[in-house]
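Aim 2 progress update. The chain analyzed this quarter is reproduced below.
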Amino acid sequence: YSNFNLMVQELEATEILQTDFVSNVSHEFKTPISAIEGYATLLQDDDMSISEEQEQYISKILFNTRRLSHLAGNILLLSKIEHQSIQTRQNWYRLDEQIRQSIVMMEPKWSEKEIEFDVDMMDVEYLGNENLICHVWDNLLSNAIKFSPCGGTIYIRMMPEGEKIRFSIENEGPQISEYSMKHIFDKFYQGDSSHKQEGNGLGLALVKQILNLCKGTVSVENIPGSGCRFTVIL
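Predicted C-alpha cells:
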C-alpha cells in the first residue's frame, strides 16, 4: 500500500511538472513572438523600399509568427481550463447573438470562399462564461469554413430542448474517416494533412475541454452524401 501511494504521489508530481513546463514555455514564447511580429510589420511599411522577393519573405515571417502566437495562446488556455473544475465569471447573455457575432467576425474567411449560410436559431438566454463559450463557436465555425468547398453552404441550427440547448453546425465538405472520428478531439490531432498549415490541432480539444467544464457535450457525425455535423449540448 505504501509503495502504491508513493507511486501515485510521484506520478502526480510528474504531471504537475509537465503541465507547469508547458504553461511556462508557452507564456515565455509570447514575448519574443510579439517582438518578431512587430519588427516584421515595420518592415512592411510603405515608406521602406524593399524588393518583391523581400516582401514575400516578410509576409511568411508574419504568417508563421501569428501561427505560433495563436498556438501559444491556445496551449495556455487549454492548460488553464484543464485545471478548472467550475465556471467562473458567469452571467446571463443571448447565446444566439454571440454566435451571430462570431459569424460576422469571420466574414473575410467565408466571403473569400463565397460560402453561404443557412441559419435558424431561436432567441436563447444562457448563464455561463461568455468569453470562454465564444471559443467554442469560433473554433467550430472556423473548422466549418476551412473544410467547406468554395460556393458551399454552412447550416447552423440552435433551439432549446427542455432545460438543455442544442446547437449544430454542418458543412458540405469531405466526410471524416472512422479513425479520425475516434481522435478528432485529441490534442494536436489533425486528420486532414492538407490543412495542417491552417491550424495546430488544438481547436477541437479546446472545444471539448470548455464544454466539459460547462457540463456540456460535443459530438460529430458524417452526413449521408457529403459533409459532417458537429452538435453541442449545453
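The chain is about 55% helix and 20% strand. The two ends are 41 Å apart (CA to CA). These observations will guide the mutagenesis experiments scheduled for the next reporting period.
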